[in-house]
Amino acid sequence: MVELETRELEYFIAVADELHFGRAAVRLSIAQPALSKAIRRIEIRLGVVLFIRSSRHVELTPAGEALREHGRHALNAVSVAVQRARRAADVQARLRLVLKPGGDAGLLSGILAEYARQPAARQVDILFSGPADRSDFLRDGRADVGLLYVPFDDLDGLAHETLHTEDRVAVVPAGHRLAGHASVRMSDLHGETLPRWKGVPGGEGTGPEVADVVQLLHMITVSRMIGVLPRSLVEPAPPGLVRIPVADAPPSRLVLAWNEQDRRPLVASFVSAALARTCGSSR
Q: Distance between alpha carbon 75 and the CA centroid of its chain, in Å?
């Protein structure tokens, strides 16, 4: 079985990122000749050529492209494993909760109060993130638990419990053609400009890119677009904006999520407190 040390992977990834042995050596704080020899040893051990080299150019081969992709995942996995081992051994570790600003449907204060009553409760650090990376916080160990919205957030690799289900509303300027409607259907929104969420691939938005709900609401206020959001994110409706229920929009679920491989009591106790407070769960 061919094996590479973590240090060797770090050397390779640095050269693969920089495509320049000198810059990679500076990044790694080692001498360039030593780095070149290390990369050559890796190629000999693997029996493949990783880089096409010339006096002015460095290029990854197909084998190098494959090792860069999977090697980066391997390094990340090692880093997460070390971090989790250290946190598991730290009896004073705080619990880190990630969510988007305002993304708790008004439930967070009650959940924290319920959790604080548990004998083994830890201090909870609140982390705020953008629209696309809350799931990544849980996968790579930056956070222990997170409040995510389904169907907007990616739950791949995450365990979760539903805390709250709510309808979705169209948010439009007060003077919009739909503003006086008691409700609308998705077909009524055809032709409207919807946002593109920063860092979120896919979707049907054709309008300007927005990073969070605050930016979206500003763009709606100046009539650049409309939005379809969980009701709690716009409750009460901001001045100058109107909320209209979307009758056939799939409901939005606020879920408490965590890495499915994380079975620490630290996480389990917080999940139990959240479910006890909200009196409902589904998997």
A: 19
DSSP state of 184: B
- Which residues are bridge partners to 51 per DSSP? 60
Q: Which two tokens stand for residue 158?
A: 């995450």
Q: Are 224 and 112 in contact (CB under 8 A)?
A: no
Give me the residue label for tokens 């050269």.
15
pTM for the full predicted model:
0.62
Which residues touch 211 (CB under 8 Å, ≥6 apart)?
A: 130, 131, 197, 198
Would you report the helix, strand and coil content of the chain in percent, each value rounded to 5? 40, 20, 40
Task: Express each pLDDT in 86-113 by its tens digit.
Answer: 655 555 678 999 998 888 988 999 999 9
Answer whether 151's CB lies under 8 Å from 249's CB: no
Cα angle, residue 164 at apex, residues 266 and 132 outer, rounded to 5°:
70
Q: Quick count: other Cβ atoms within 10 Å of Cβ 167?
A: 15
Residue 140, pLDDT > 90, answer: no
Residue 101 CB neighbours (<10 A): 12
pLDDT greater than 90 at residue 213:
no
